Amino acid sequence: MALPSPRRVLVTGFGPFLDVTDNPSGRVARAVNGAQVNGLAIHGLELPVRFLDGPARAVAAARELGATAVIGLGVDRRTRTVDVETRAYNLGAGLDTEGSTAPVLEPGGPQLVYSNVDAVAFAAALGGRVDDDAGRYVCNAWLYLVARALVPTTDVVFVHVPIEGLHPALLVAAIGALYGDTARR
Q1: What CATH number matches the domain at 7-179, 3.40.50.300, 3.10.129.10, 3.40.190.10, 3.40.630.20?
Q2: Which of 64, 83, 141, 185 could covalently link to 160 via disulfide, CB atoms 3.0 to 4.6 Å apart?
Q3: pTM greater than 0.85
């Protein structure tokens, strides 16, 4: 009899943009790729800093993996804490690495989209805090578009990390604490 395959969690981070030549979110996503914790297999993926292409790649990878949860990481140069984001707006501002913008992410879509993860528990496990605004840049687009595509069948959450980054082992432990015994099967 074959052993059951582990449940899968996808962690995405972003590549370089503007003056962030070594994006800590992409570095963490690459570092956790292949980790296992509490019956979970963690897959890490670095995405381009693009309003539509980055989220689309995350959705495609999550579907291909059959992910239980998708955790997006992005850097916030203004914070010194790890911020677990709870909502995103159907708005984009600024230019991505391709020089594109997305003033409206989904024409006709809802104004707000919410994460469906226990943000308080995840923030506590990460030693961070809960925040209710993912901004208007590509991180916001990630949460809005990935949640619209995957919720309610997949858990979706976005985490801003400071420029100093996040220790990969801490993220793996937090994922294990949040999903190890309670993830949807």
Answers
A1: 3.40.630.20
A2: 83
A3: yes
